Structure formats: structure tokens, C-alpha cells
């Protein structure tokens, strides 16, 4: 997967189109990423009690994963944030390095 945990991404389609956020978690097997502040859903949790006796439960708002094809990597070029595709190249030792297609810089 070309998007990794900690990357700054922008949503390119869907209800949150145009929003930017950091990747909290990546799920490569499902081709999905969890982006902070994007695809927020309300979850109903069952009421219960903690060890101290306080009430838990209710309606909790949390992020849900989005498909990796719906986000694009954001890189900085001359002080501006630019969305770009990601490519790969190999260095002299044979290590795989991610490259921003639009700017040509290593990520």
C-alpha cells in the first residue's frame, strides 16, 4: 500500500471531499486507512458501569476507515501543500523508496 501511518492525506471523493487529515492507522489487507476527522460515524454503545461506579455508554462519535483509493497523499512544495500520486524507486543498496509523482521528491 502506498499510504502509510502518519502520512498527511486529502480525501478526493465522497462526503468528506477536500478534507485533510493524518493517517491514524492503515489496514493493508482491507485496502483501507483510518484518517483523523474524516468519515465520522455515530456509534451506539451499551450502557454499563466502570469499577468506580460511573456510567458509560451512549452515543459516541468516532472515525471509520475509508478506502485507500479515496485519499491522496499531500506533500509540501515551496510552502504550498500539493496532492500527489505515489511511485517507487530503488536506491543503490536496493532499498525501496517512495517518490511523489508530482514533485519528484523522496517521501
From TrEMBL:
Gene Ontology CC: ribosome
Residues covered by the KOW domain: 2-29
Source superkingdom: Bacteria
Alphabetical UniProt keywords: Ribonucleoprotein, Ribosomal protein, RNA-binding, rRNA-binding
Keyword Transmembrane in annotation: no
InterPro entries hit by this protein: KOW, Rib_uL2_dom2, Ribosomal_uL24, Ribosomal_uL24_C, Ribosomal_uL24_CS, Ribosomal_uL24_KOW, Translation_prot_SH3-like_sf
Stored CDD domains: KOW_RPL26
Pfam families assigned to the protein according to its UniProt record, in alphabetical order: KOW (PF00467), ribosomal_L24 (PF17136)
Function comment: One of the proteins that surrounds the polypeptide exit tunnel on the outside of the subunit. One of two assembly initiator proteins, it binds directly to the 5'-end of the 23S rRNA, where it nucleates assembly of the 50S subunit.
Self-association and partners: Part of the 50S ribosomal subunit.
Membership in a protein family: Belongs to the universal ribosomal protein uL24 family.
NCBIfam families found in the cross-reference section: rplX_bact (TIGR01079)
Official protein name in the record: Large ribosomal subunit protein uL24
